[in-house]
Each structure stands twice: as C-alpha cells, then as structure tokens.
Design a protein that fits this description.
The complex is a heterodimer of chains A (156) and B (145). Chain A contains four helices and four strands; from the N terminus they run αααββαββ. Chain A is of the alpha+beta class. Chain A has a single domain, classed as 2-Layer Sandwich (Muramoyl-pentapeptide Carboxypeptidase, domain 2), CATH 3.30.1380. Chain A has a four-stranded antiparallel sheet with strand order 1-2-4-3, with helices on one face. Chain A is globular and about 45 Å long. The termini of chain A are far apart. By secondary structure, chain B is of the alpha+beta class. In chain B, α2 runs antiparallel to α3. The chains are: A alpha+beta (156), B alpha+beta (145). At the A-B interface, α1 of A face α3 of B.
C-alpha cells in the first residue's frame, strides 16, 4: 500500500469495530485483542525486515534496530530517545507518534489514547519475540503527540 | 481586509463548525436557527444559480456581496460546504477555502480517530490550527479596530 494514510485509516477502523462489537464489560478484552493482533503483525514484519541483516550482537543492538530500522519501516521516522537501566528495562520515547499527531496537541482526548497504543505495543512485542527476546511492553502518554513505550525483558 | 465568520456544513446540512472573529452584529435568533437558515438559503441559491444560468457555468455559485460584506462559498466534491463572510476588499478566496479544506480539515478532522463524520467538530487541535491559519492570512486585519 503506497500511501501512509491507508494504514492509519485501517487502524482507526479496526479499533472502532472492536469497540463496537464488544459489550461494556469487555473493554479491557479489546485492548488485549488489539495487542495480540499487533503481536502477530510484528512477528511477520520482523521476519521480512531482517532478511538480509546479520545476527544481532546483543540485546542493546536489537533494541537499536527496533528504534531505528523497525520504526522507520513502519512509521517513517526513528525513535527520538532510548533509555535503559541496563537491567532489562528500556524506555523508547517518540515525540510525534504517527497515530496520535492528528488527535490533539496536549490534553484533549487523553482517555482514548491507550486504545491507539495497544496495537503498536503488540507489534514491538511480536518483533522482539521473533528476534529471540521475550518481553512485556507497555505504553504511556502524558502529552500528545509524544508517547513512551516501556519494554521489560523477561529473563527465564 | 477583514474576515468576519466561518461556517462548515456537511452534505446533510449539519453544521460541523462555526467560528467568528469580528462579528459586530448578532442576527437575533438562536444558533440552531441561524445554521438552518444559512444552510437552506445557500442550498436554494446554489440551485437557483444553476438553473437560471444563461451560459455554461464554470464553478457555480461562489459568492454574493452587499454594500457591507461579502459571503464566500466553496463546496468540495464530497459535499462539505465552507462559507466565509468577509469584508468587501477581498478578491476571490476560493483558493483559501480550498486550503482550509485540504490542509486543516482533512488533516485534523478526517484523520482524527475521535472525530466522527457528520458530528460537530470538537477537536481543539483543529481549532488552534484553523485560528493560526486565518490569522496568518493577508486578508486578516493586523490591528484590532
């Protein structure tokens, strides 16, 4: 699909479909379902994107791949800030997240933001899992369109 | 050079957005009535202009002027109507209305997941961007009179 807005519109519609078809008590289920959608997408995407590249030296290298190449392929930009505590927790900050730029410039529509971050979280988790890294990904938004993804590596 | 008000209607007649910058005289009726009046009138004028045309029309109805103000009209292929009242010194602002549609409306309303089509626009981002754009136009007054 050549035009980037097609992905955005498709994403918007998937989310509203999910929410329309589930009952009031199942709202959290929707976030979980969106996340597992993203998981599967991330897995396949990363297979395709790393066809040509060599194996990653270590975890940090894998994270840098996610921040630079993976983000570039999907959102046409790179992550603005990567922080880690070297103990398995990484925080990725994107100051102008693609799905949130058109929504608001600050605090409006804040309650709706998590719905739009569930799929991207799942994509990160799927991508990492297919690269051999098991983790839990959460996202938080304090002021749109900036958002932070927190990745916690699970060591077996 | 002044911009007085701006209305945005969708194809069903719902007023999606209304804003004013320099309106000095209120019409003396409620906002709902005003929107219905505006939409009905514009619809009638449009179809009147079309039927009475003695030659082939290029664009159809585009503006009307009185001795004090000018009302400019622009309709998109999807039926969105942009109506802007300005003073008499402005020329043809069809391009400006088109820019409002493509750079601001489509960007910040159509692409906003929270804004449903056919519902009044509540996005503050849209309001901010629209305001910035209008104030930056050369037809907007630079000093408040």
């Amino acid at each position: 699909m050549a035009d980037e807005v097609i992905l955005e519109y498709l994403h918007m519609e998937i989310i509203s479909q999910f929410y329309r078809s589930c009952e009031k008590s199942d709202q959290d289920q929707c976030i979980a379902k969106l996340e597992s959608l993203g998981f599967r997408i991330g897995q396949s995407l990363v297979e395709r994107f790393t066809k040509e590249s060599p194996r990653f030296k270590d975890e940090l290298d894998t994270m840098k791949f996610i921040c630079k190449d993976f983000w570039n392929y999907v959102y046409k930009k790179q992550i603005d800030n990567l922080r880690t505590n070297h103990q398995g927790v990484y925080v990725l900050q994107d100051n102008k997240f693609r799905f949130l730029t058109q929504m608001s410039n600050g605090k409006q529509f804040m309650e709706a933001a998590p719905k739009f971050l569930a799929l991207p979280c799942g994509m990160i988790r799927g991508a990492l899992s297919n690269l051999g890294v098991n983790c839990v990904v959460t996202a938080e938004v304090s002021a749109m369109p900036a958002c932070k993804f927190q990745i916690q590596i699970q060591r077996a | 050079m002044t911009v007085y008000t701006l209305y945005i209607f969708d194809r069903n007649g719902t007023c999606l957005y209304y804003t004013e910058w320099n309106r000095k005289k209120q019409p003396g009726m409620s906002k709902d009535e005003e929107f219905k009046l505006m939409y009905g009138m514009i619809h009638s004028i449009k179809s009147f202009v079309h039927r009475i045309a003695p030659t082939d029309l290029r664009d159809g109805f585009s503006n009307f002027r009185t001795s004090r103000y000018k009302l400019n009209f622009y309709e998109t292929p999807s039926g969105m109507k942009f109506i802007m009242t300005t003073d008499l010194t402005v020329g043809n602002i069809r391009d400006i209305l088109h820019q409002i549609y493509s750079n601001i409306f489509v960007e910040y309303v159509v692409r906003n997941p929270q804004c449903e089509l056919g519902q009044p626009i509540t996005s503050e981002l849209f309001q901010t961007k629209l305001d910035e754009f209008i104030r930056g136009l050369s037809i907007f007054p630079t000093r408040i009179s």
